[in-house]
Amino acid sequence: MFLVDWFYSVLDSLAWLWQKEAKILFLGLDNAGKTTLLHMLKDERLVQHAPTQRPTSEELNIGRIRFKAFDLGGHRIARRVWKDYYAKVDAPPTGPAELDALLSDDALAGVPFLVLGNKIDVPHAAPERDLRGYLGLAGCTTGKGDVVGLAGTGVRPLEVFMCSVVVRKMGYGEGFRWMSQYIK
Ligand SMILES: Nc1nc2c(ncn2[C@@H]2O[C@H](COP(=O)(O)OP(=O)(O)OP(=O)(O)O)[C@@H](O)[C@H]2O)c(=O)[nH]1
Ligand SMILES: [Mg+2]
Description:
Elements: H1 2-13, E1 20-26, H2 34-43, E2 56-62, E3 65-71, H3 98-103, E4 113-117, H4 128-134, E5 158-162, H5 172-180
Parallel strand pairs: 1-3, 4-5
Antiparallel strand pairs: 2-3
This protein binds guanosine-5'-triphosphate and magnesium ion (MG).
């Protein structure tokens, strides 16, 4: 038993050897819950945040991936700097109508998109099907499971996951697991 424990502690201490690194952008309209999600993922704490005025970045360790996460404000003026953050990004979770512009931007070609439909705890929250329709994603998403066969096809991984960061604390974990499989 001792030997097994020792073996795993050695493995743990070597984990950095096979850790992957990725850059990720949190994009979405203001009040969507991006900063709240970032801090939930970072230290499982629920904190009230003022609207994000200037971009901040945090390190997140999820599974074997070390994410450098950039949290950008969602209000109109803050959205102007989104473009400055596109270079060499591995995945940008995002929100409403700006999505079209992001999806057709050459700087983000091939980058996986995780769309999180947050606040499903709110009464009358739009169901997933309506959100997909509203975002123009009906029929465009690539599948929620392990997507064998997408690699090398040039098809951009794109999927919608509904979640509740605050009240139910659910949904976003599945989203991040889905995204992680596309980070090389
Ligand atoms: N009911 C509910 N409220 C949430 C949820 N997630 C976040 N909120 C609330 O939504 C508000 C906005 O959250 P923020 O994380 O500051 O939003 P943001 O996307 O960072 O906004 P900007 O920084 O302005 O772009 C806060 O009052 C959060 O507590 C959720 O899942 N359910
Ligand atoms: Mg914010």
